[in-house]
Design brief:
Low-confidence stretches of chain D: none
Chains: A alpha+beta (203), B mainly alpha (192), C alpha+beta (407), D mainly alpha (393)
Strand content of chain D: under 5%
Number of helices of chain B: 7
Distance between the termini of chain B: 89 Å
Number of domains of chain D: 1
CATH class of one domain in chain B: Mainly Alpha
CATH superfamily of one domain in chain B: NADH-ubiquinone/plastoquinone oxidoreductase chain 6, subunit NuoJ
Order of helices and strands of chain D: HHHHHHHHHEEHHHHHHE
Structural class of chain D: mainly alpha
Radius of gyration of chain D: 23 Å
Strand order of the largest sheet of chain D: 1-2
Helix content of chain D: 55-70%
Largest sheet of chain B: none
Number of strands of chain D: 3
Oligomer: heterotetramer
């Protein structure tokens, strides 16, 4: 009969009307500034640069892979002229300039994916509006650099894996270095012995 | 009487809007001015304690007739008066003659009535009930005749409106355009 | 709104011939208007430009509609307002860098866009996604189909004037799926999740359970939806017999997806191509008979139920294992010279990518077959003879996303 | 009880008694006007916020809740925004008519409230032809809508105006026809007398018109026609935003837009108040035990209930198409109201000493109205077979 479908629909909306007062299932709204949902661990917004210890020890080596792979080409890197030692004690360049234009960045995360030095990672900040749409949205090295502790706070499992790997690398490197030192020392002893022998022979 | 002042205000208003309805160049403006004149008349009726007539005037003239006039104006294409065209029709003499005739027809019964003799009316306000009773008894025949006439007009209008699609079919370029197949045709086509 | 009345400039000397010819053409299209009669044309026909700034053109789409009263006698779709040079950008970038751009094609269903593209590149390179990756792809693809269809029905009802109630219900459910996507890929809409030979990251802990819960609760929403809408007399009279698309025309015009199936053609790439691991799942393809707006609406509701059945099966049987082909290479990919066309049954129809490689790190040619655009080509045929109110819902029932139409 | 019931009347007379006799009648009029404007202005503000909150709840969201406690100051914010917005008049618009249209809409609507009895002894004018007056002043709104649509020089506006006029004229017929049984059976066009005719209680339940078969059917027919008359969903075609942007309001902004908005809501209030008066016993309490409630309170409770139904419907249904809208009026509502008229006649004459059993009277009435409802309902949407969907494997 005419009208039965509409009445059925009205019953449905009435159910939703009352349901929205009693059930969180129906009223899913989060009232943003007061209530905030914790972001998912995987959530990503803009890139960040991880450093260990202080700002002078960025993991970034200014290799430029992210700059090359960035789909939106929003990364700009200039290498420094001096090298610094990295966590393994190798001498690496560091970026003198590392700019990301977040008005262009589309938060795809490819830079973080391709970075071989675990340096560029994805942040979770989202309140990024500024007064100036040019200078305010062009983030420099200082704005992007974040401590490893911060990275741990937002991506605990990723950061844990990376640190474990880096510790492992470091241990290996140290062992290697130790071995190398030992070998060197051994070699030195050997050579000194040899030279002593030579001396002896000469004598 | 304090009523007099407002009467003159509204009377002048009615005359002004009625003149505007004749003299304005844009036909829609004319129609709107006519509607205003009708509304002013309704107010004057109301002041004369003719409640029912006043409301009927509003309901029928403002609510219906003026809308009808506007529809007629909009449906009549090219009815806009071009600038430079003389407002008065070349047949203004005929018009004048008709106007005089109409005025005469109205004036005769008015003059023959007790109008102007300043007799206090028997009843200040005509109750609606009385009007209804009078319409159903004394004026039954005119009422029914009018009803019949309007019904005939209504049916006639409906018939005219019904015939229109065929005409427009010829004029419109619509027929040149691929016609959308109906569901029945589709079903017939789909079935092998 | 562009009135046909010639702007005052036109009375002066024309700057170039082309503009004048266009104007003349248009004057033969529908007569000049007489402005003082309230914008009514001097002829019977009235040209109205619906869009690009119109509440229900689903973005920046324009329809130049010629009306006889309220009846449509001609309709010219005009698109390109959202053209972003996607194909050319992809040709300039590496293979990997094209993936986040595909997110932005049909920005409601980024997962299926990713999928179609990586599938094409996999054809080109011969990468073989592992079992688990295929399962994940099917799961996210069907979840995408679920909320795409739910939103479409919401949008359709919004076009019908239902004040957004169905749309809000659809969005309520969509949020749950988007939450799943966020916890999986890090982003709600621009997922950028698929990779050549697999997917980018594995499912987080507990994701399967959450997904199962969403899938288990979804039928309740569908029932609610149907109680609210399917029997509604106003929806019935508004949608039945409106915008009929015949089987033949649908096939000839290359229409795909739910629109084609609503016209009664049983064509679904999941069944036809048997791509990915779809043959393992038990599901059916609902078919319409009339090809009108109501059938398109119903087909989508029924497809959602079928998707749910696929999801249930996939979530129950997903195996453990690697998620990327070990041979696969993401960065600096240089496929052998050759070409590939990959297509999937996206929620809106057949989404195809055609990629030509010349052995260099970026595609030589990158071409998309967007279902929204192809489905839109029959718009005029569906709209003729209907009123302007119907045009809006016919457009709504086509299910377009302008990001995909204009690319 | 009586004091609370008549508190506003006493207040008015007390105020008048403080004034010199010469100005009393004038002040009395002014007081009535102020009361109506204040009450229904507040109603307007409250309805806009409650409607949005109610619709929000229907759609599973909160609705506006940021301005003031629970968002109750939202109307103030809206008003400030509306009043401070730039008043844009299109270059090609007919400026005078464009300016007058919102006034022509809003001013007569206020008049309509003057005949409604809001409580015992609480109607501004006691007109003998009150119902007629109500519909007469309502007639101006069509003209206003046309003026707005035509003067904007916008095709959407014009289409919207045309739709609005055709719709209002079509639905005025069933609206008036649904009122006629009430007028016939209470024997008066005077709204106070109509309310009086619904006084008294049978078995403790009020004898409102809605509790008779013709009143019941008439009430719903009246409500449907009233929905269309006040351009509310599902009959909101004149402003069908998905089709014609905002219809005749497309080119209005700022204060003029606010006036139109006000006018629309006042139209809704007026017709709702009329439906309460005609069918729901005006200010009478529904049960004898509730008679202690002030009469104006009863009136506004009923009033609010009907407004809530309008909001509920708005949150549920999609919009009709224009031809369907007109068909619905002429092929469904008008015939049904005519049948209802017949039912009222039968009801009236069966009561005259025929001594018929009450249930038999109901049965006869139902036998007339229900088949008509089914028949015209069927005729409106002819054979729509249930669709069966096949599956391809």
């Amino acid at each position: 009969m005419l009208g039965s479908g509409i009445i059925k629909g009205m019953v449905e909306t009435a159910r939703n009307f009352f349901g929205s007062y009693v059930s969180r299932e129906r009223l899913t709204t989060v009232q943003y500034p007061e209530q905030q949902l914790a972001p998912h661990e995987n959530a990503r917004t803009i890139p960040l640069l991880v450093y260990d210890g202080d700002m002078e020890h960025l993991r970034c080596t200014a290799c430029g892979i992210c700059e090359m792979e960035c789909p939106a080409q929003c990364i700009y890197i200039v290498k420094d002229t001096v090298k610094k030692s990295d966590y393994l004690g190798r001498m690496q360049f560091q970026p003198r300039v590392f700019d990301i234009d977040i008005s262009v960045c589309m938060a795809c995360g490819i830079c973080a994916e391709v970075c071989p030095f675990d340096s560029i990672m994805m942040d979770q900040v989202f309140a990024l509006s500024t007064q100036n749409r040019f200078s305010g949205l062009l983030l420099h090295k200082e704005d992007l650099a974040k401590a490893n502790g911060y990275f741990h706070a937002i991506h605990p499992s990723d950061a844990g894996d990376i640190d474990a790997r880096r510790d492992e690398d470091k241990r290996k490197a140290e062992a290697k270095a130790k071995a190398a030192v030992a070998a060197k020392a051994a070699a030195a002893i050997k050579s000194s012995e040899a030279s002593a022998k030579q001396v002896e022979v000469a004598a | 009487m304090p009523n007099n002042i407002s009467f003159y205000i509204f009377a002048v208003g009615v005359l002004a809007t009625a003149t505007a309805a004749m003299r304005l160049r844009n036909p829609v403006h004319c129609a709107l001015a006519a509607a205003a004149a009708f509304a002013g008349l309704a107010v004057i009726y109301f002041q004369l304690d003719a409640e029912f007539i006043s409301f009927a005037q509003l309901l029928i003239y403002v609510g219906a007739i003026s809308i009808l006039v506007i529809f007629a104006v909009l449906l009549t294409r090219g009815s806009d008066i071009q600038p430079g065209v003389e407002l008065a029709s070349p047949h203004w003499l005929t018009g004048l003659a008709i106007a005089v005739l109409v005025a005469f027809v109205i004036a005769v019964p008015v003059c023959s009535s007790s109008f102007g003799e300043k007799i206090a009316p028997k009843m200040t306000v005509a109750p609606v009930k009385l009007i209804g009773e009078e319409l159903m008894t004394r004026y039954l025949f005119p009422l029914e005749t009018m009803g019949l006439l309007l019904t005939v007009a209504l049916i006639g209008a409906a018939v005219i409106a019904l015939r229109e699609p065929e005409e427009s079919e010829i004029r419109n370029p619509k027929s040149e355009i691929r016609k959308q197949p109906t569901t029945e045709e589709l079903v017939a086509e789909v079935q092998p | 709104m562009t009135a046909l009345a010639e702007p005052p400039v036109m009375h002066e000397a024309p700057p170039s011939g082309t503009i004048w010819r266009l104007a003349e053409d248009r004057s033969s299209f529908a007569g000049p208007t007489d402005d003082r009669a309230g914008g009514l044309p001097d002829h019977d026909l009235l040209e109205v430009a619906l869009g690009p700034h119109h509440p229900s053109t689903h973005g920046v789409f324009r329809m130049d509609v010629v009306l006889d009263g309220e009846e449509v006698v001609r309709l010219k779709p005009v698109f390109g307002y959202l053209h972003r040079n996607h194909e050319k950008i992809a040709e300039k970038n590496s293979y990997l860098a094209a993936i986040p751009y595909t997110d932005r094609l049909d920005y409601i269903c980024s997962m299926t866009n990713n999928w179609a593209y990586v599938m094409t590149v996999e054809k080109l390179t011969g990468f073989q996604p592992p079992e688990r990756a295929e399962y994940i792809r099917v799961i996210v693809g069907e979840l995408t189909r679920l909320f795409n269809h739910a939103c479409l029905v919401g949008f359709l009802l919004q076009d019908m004037g239902a004040l957004g109630t169905p749309l809000m219900y659809a969005f309520r459910e969509r949020e749950k799926i988007l939450d799943l996507f966020e916890s999986l890929s890090g982003a709600r809409m621009m997922c950028n999740y698929m990779r050549f030979g697999g997917v980018r990251c594995d499912l987080p802990d507990g994701w399967i359970e959450e997904a199962k819960q969403v899938v288990a609760e979804f039928p309740r929403f569908l029932d609610e939806f149907e109680a609210l809408l399917t029997g509604n007399e106003i929806l019935l009279v508004r949608s039945q017999g409106i915008g009929v698309l015949s089987k033949e025309l649908a096939v000839n015009a290359g229409v795909t997806g739910p629109m084609l199936r609503a016209s009664g053609v049983g064509y679904d790439l999941r069944k036809v191509d048997k791509y990915s691991i779809y043959p393992r799942f038990n599901f059916r393809i609902p078919l319409g008979q009339h090809g009108d707006v109501f059938d398109r609406y119903m087909i989508r509701l029924l497809e959602m139920r079928e998707s749910l059945s696929i999801l249930k099966q996939a979530l129950d049987t997903i195996p453990a294992g690697p998620i990327v082909d070990p041979k696969a290479k993401q960065r600096g990919l240089r496929p052998k010279a050759g070409e590939a066309y990959g297509r999937i049954e996206a929620p809106k129809g057949e989404l195809g990518f055609y990629v030509v490689s010349d052995g260099s790190p970026n595609p030589y040619r990158f071409r998309i077959r967007p279902p929204s655009l192809i489905n839109l080509t029959v718009l005029e045929d569906m709209c003729l003879g209907h009123t302007i109110a119907d045009v809006v819902i016919i457009l709504g029932s086509v299910d377009i996303v302008l990001g995909e139409v204009d690319r | 009880m009586n004091n609370l019931d008549q508190i506003f009347v006493y207040a008015k007379y007390w105020l008048l008694s403080q004034l010199p006799g010469g100005v009393q009648s004038l002040v009395s009029i002014v007081l009535d006007i102020i009361a109506i404007i204040a009450v229904f202005g507040t109603c307007f503000a409250l309805t806009t916020i409650l409607e949005r909150k109610g619709l929000g709840r229907i759609q599973n969201r909160y609705g506006p809740n940021r301005v003031g406690p629970c968002g109750l100051l939202q109307p103030m914010a809206d008003a400030i925004k509306m009043l401070t917005k730039e008043d844009i008049v299109p270059f090609a618009a007919d400026k005078v008519v464009h300016y007058l249209a919102p006034l022509v809409l809003t001013v007569p609507i206020w008049l309509a409230f003057s005949v409604i009895p809001f409580g015992r002894e609480m109607s501004a004018i006691d007109l003998d032809a009150g119902v007629l007056f109500f519909f007469a002043v309502g007639g101006a709104s069509e003209l206003a809508v046309f003026m707005a649509g035509w003067s904007s020089r916008n095709k959407y506006s014009l289409v919207g105006a045309m739709r609005a006029i055709a719709q209002m004229i079509s639905y005025e017929v069933p609206l008036v026809l649904a009122t006629i049984p009430v007028i016939m059976l209470s024997g008066s066009l005077n709204l106070n007398k109509i309310v009086e005719a619904q006084s008294g209680y049978a078995f403790g339940v009020a004898q409102w018109n809605v509790f008779t078969p013709w009143g019941f059917a008439g009430f719903f027919l009246f409500l449907i026609a009233a929905t269309a008359e006040s351009n509310r969903s599902p009959f909101d075609l004149p402003e069908g935003e998905s089709e014609i942007i905002a219809g005749f309001l497309t080119e209005y902004s700022g204060f003029k837009y606010a006036l139109f908005f006000l006018g629309e809501y006042l139209g809704l209030f007026a017709v709702t108040a009329l439906s309460v008066t005609l069918f729901l016993g005006g200010w009478h309490a529904p049960l004898q035990v509730l008679e202690f409630l002030p009469s104006w309170f009863c009136f506004f409770v009923k009033f609010a209930a009907i407004i809530a139904v309008f909001i509920w419907v708005r949150g549920t249904v999609p919009r009709l198409r224009f031809d369907q809208l007109l068909n619905f009026s002429w092929r469904f509502l008008v015939p049904l109201t005519l049948v209802n008229l017949l039912v009222a006649v039968v009801w009236h004459f069966t009561s005259l000493g025929a001594g018929l059993d009450q249930s038999l009277r109901w049965l006869i009435s139902a036998a007339m109205i229900v088949p008509a409802y089914v028949y015209f309902g069927r005729a409106l949407s002819p054979n729509r077979p249930t669709r069966i969907y096949q599956y391809a494997e």
